[in-house]
Amino acid sequence: MLIRELNLADAGALRNLRALVDAGGTLGPESERLRALTPEGIEQLLRPPYETVGAFVGEKLLGSASLYQYPVEPFDPFDVPWFALAGVIVHPLACKQGIGRKLVVCRLNRMQELGAHGVSLLVNVPNPAAMALYESLGFQSYEVNEGAYVHNGQRYDEVTMRLRFASLSSTGAESP
Fold first, then answer.
1. pLDDT > 70: what percent of the chain?
2. How far apart are CA 156 and CA 145, in angstroms?
3. CB 3.0 to 4.6 Å from 29: which of 59, 91, 101, 149, for a disulfide?
4. Largest Cα–Cα distance in the chain?
5. Rounded to whole angstroms, how far apart are CA atoms 115 and 48?
6. Model pTM score
7. How many CB atoms are located within 10 Å of the residue 134 CB?
8. Kind plus residue range of the DSSP H or E element containing 110
9. Closest by alpha carbon to 3, among 59, 72, 54?
């Protein structure tokens, strides 16, 4: 498996993967999900301030993960950068193969290279595999927005999780 930075030439593959993964509605509120599948939404993830990587087997894109720096530090009163982890997705037929973990660890390592103090992310519930992955890497729930979005008539919660990098060394996270 190869993990590499995605570029505009990968936009079609990323859109197809996001559409496939989003069939279950786990990628957030409908308006955000629909916008994320537009050519503009996909291209946004492939340009600064986002840095998006993809996991490939041969020419097949099996997963992706993005990061971006918060314009304002949300968790610390000091002038230290915090980043967001976003768009962590894995092809349904490639789940349970460690791809998501490798993508997340790759992004965490990059954030540390950029001098990040910590990272936060949103998990749309129910998504127990994502919650388990993030918790195994040391993320902790910070805030729950109950009933944040509706999918197929069902209300779902959105959980904000965060990780301070000082605690990363105890997670066993390492380069993929």
1. 84
2. 9
3. 149
4. 45
5. 17
6. 0.86
7. 25
8. helix 99-113
9. 54
